[in-house]
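Entry, Tuesday afternoon. Goal for today is a structural model of the target with zinc ion bound, before we commit to ordering more compound. Inputs were pasted exactly as handed over by J.K., no edits. I checked the ligand SMILES twice against the vendor sheet because last time a stereocentre got dropped in transcription.
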Amino acid sequence: MKCHYCEEGETRVVDTRERKDKIKRRRECKNCGKRFTTYETVESINTKVEKDRGDIEKFKEDKIRAGLKKAVQKTPVTSDDIEEIVEEVKAQIKQKEKVSSKHIGDIVKSELRSRNKVAYIRFASVYDSFEDVEMFQKEVEALKE
Ligand SMILES: [Zn+2]
């Protein structure tokens, strides 16, 4: 998003708050450094998420955001990246009636993987399932090199 003040600089998101049907974002201009707030209407996603044990719950993007925030600590992955990843997940699932939590995890993992290996591995270790163990070990080995 372009800066409201200088109309030149790209902005970065410094804070995101989710309200009932709105998202409030605090943005900072990379050019002039000024901050401003934007509000976005939340596009309601009615996709249901099926968990590993068969429980079904409503899709909540804050859950993904919270998981990502933990995974990216002390990595170069920014809050802008996190928002991009959340948007990507929403774009991929919004037309579907039901998705598995594993499917959501896979989208997040592939997005993280292209950005930062440490963040990817941390996130994967939470979402890990047996079939991923081999790939997971390969990634850990690759980090040591
Ligand atoms: Zn500016």
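DSSP finds five helices and six strands in the chain.
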